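Let's inspect one such protein example.
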Amino acid sequence: MNTTHTAQDWHAHYDAGRDFSPLTDTEKSILTEHLALSEGTQGARALEVACGTGELARFLAAAGYQVDAVDWAQSAVERVAAASEEGVVCHQLDITGGDLSSLAPAGTGRYRLITMRRALAHLPDRTRTVAELAALLDEDGTLCVITPHADRHPQELRGICLDDAEIDLLADGWQHTGRFDADGSAVVLLHGPRTDPVTYNEKRTPKPAAMAGVAVVVTNEHGQVLLGWNPSRAVWELPAGKVEPGEAFEVTAVRELGEEAGLHARLESVLLLGTLCDSTHGFTRITEIARITDYTGEPTVREPELITRWEWHTPSAVRHLPQPLFTASAQALNTVWPGLLPDVPPAHRTPRPAGDVALKFAEPAAAVRMREQLVRDLTEAGWTDTPELQRAFTVVPRHAFLPEQSLASAYANEAVATVFDEDTGRSMSSVSQPEMQAVMLRRAGLRPGDNVLEIGGGGYNASLIAELVGPAGSVVCVEIDPYVHARTERFLAETGYADRVRAILGDGTHGAPGHLIPENGFDAILITVASNDVPWRWTEQLAEGGHLVVPLRIGGFTRAVGLRKQGPVLVSTAISPCGFVPMQGAGRWDETPVPIGDTGYGIRWEDTPPAPLDGLDRALAEGGLELWTGVTVHGDESFEDLQLWLATSLSGFCRMEGDPDRPGPVRLPKRSGAAAIVLGRSLACLMTERREHDEPNGTSTWEFGVQGFGPDGKAAADTLAAAVRAWDQELRGQATPRLTVMPAGTPDSALPAGHVVEKTDCRIVVTWPGRDEVDGSSVGQPTAPERSDEQ
């Protein structure tokens, strides 16, 4: 019942002058006979609940009671008060949600009588309301309920009546009851409310509607998982079975593992990971996932009518089983190794809190061999150039964080995507290329005992950090994607790093939660997703002299930048090109280009204030000019510093996008947009063209050229070409820019010499040595203590 609606209805009822069903002579007779006050009890207190216009309250007052009359309709209370009946005090209160105890009389705090006439059927929470009223009665008090009886009224009035079952339910909580018939109503007198403890009972035997079982994921000393072949169902499946009545999940796991496969485990070695719920054959299926790595015995066929053979399988190879895998087993395997199996039928999972069972990590000999080879390759190439880095990459099992990959793929020196955007197919999360991880770890200058924050999950990089900072250090890993966070937690637990890495679900743009920030800040912060800004919280949470390593986008180009904190300023220590998945959450940016009319081309402004594109569609349609710079590069030669130079030094810099295979006037590169500038209604784009090709060596020479469009296309092309030539003559191969990151709002007068890139949270000054520096000037901030890092 909606009490607000009811109160309004009854208010309108009484406000219109209508009344209520009057007391019958039979009711008066019963009340007089059973509730009359004896000599010496005159003036006893009574409470009339849902008093209406007050007829019963006045009747009780005439019988010698001092009456509190209560109703939820204000108009009813006003009419009772207007009658000015001696011995009656009116109160307006919603008895279904108000504080009934506030009505208790002063002094004794109890009523001798509480009445409720033709109202109980309207209440939604009858049991609770009656219990609250009972608490207001004195030791010898009576609760009197008068209600229309369902058997005496037609079906359309059933909503205002109680039947025998409901009246019996009302009487259950009382020691003494009396019931009398009164002209189609029941008068129920209740004495002595019971306060016995609640008892418990079962329903009748239920119809089977659900099946509860435990699936056991057990691995051997090579990290392989046990599966059994069920010929009757023609599926592979995990050791599993139904939960016996009264049996704990851990007991079921140990029992089934022994009964089915002959393996023996202790209860304390069982780690419960959560409960899966789905449906099958019209039943609800509930599957508890148990993880076991500590057991004795060898797999033995114990129930040949169910399983004819047991085999150990490499987890990644389960993705390519030639026979089907039982659905519930597949769901269990994906709980242990999220992402292992694709397109598994969904099941609702209720995870369990992390248990205190330590799993034993095991792996095949091939994984150790491939990992050692990877470290040799990285060391030979100069990436892992310290014993500490070499040891970390040798110890941490990369394949354990990529269970869906083969060992060969897991230990290739390549990035591996783990999450894709369903709409675009772009990678949204990945395990980075080992050589890039080595570069970033080296730039972080990690030492034993350091406190480190990592933004971006997965677990592998955080485990490398844990090895570098050692037991005395700490690692906090913040990940925004719940799925990636779940993977991170599971893989850390599987590999034994859960007690060394604190995985947090949250938006890394905001840094670490306050309670996890060390007193003096983090010694290093590593960002493992591309960021378009340097949020002030990162700088704030970084210790003085600490290192921030971030894949930073400037002008649309991402560079792995090592920065050292000097007061409120960050100064770069190293810069190199890189590729990372984009940041999500508050740090996400929109890469949608602004279309140039209907030409199929668009402009991405990146860090440049957008300018109007009016007229550029006509300029492109009219065609343009080509200007060649005479500057060439070899096909295997890097020119990333040219990209950064153009993006930071040219006014109106932008990126031009379009389909390179679509016929059109702009010669776009195959894999990315073209560097460009917009000047008014004119446009200039950078392009390349092959000039020479050495067939024996497979190398080519390419020349930079510029296309110009629009009335000032020649001027725009000359500007862009001049910037390319300046790079070739003054900066190429000999200049690494210095980045100075200062808080947003820093006045121009406090900035060092260089080109300013405006971000939301910071101002980045890009200083090119020998060109922008004046007398070797630098930011006027105190120099932090020296720490080992890449210069």
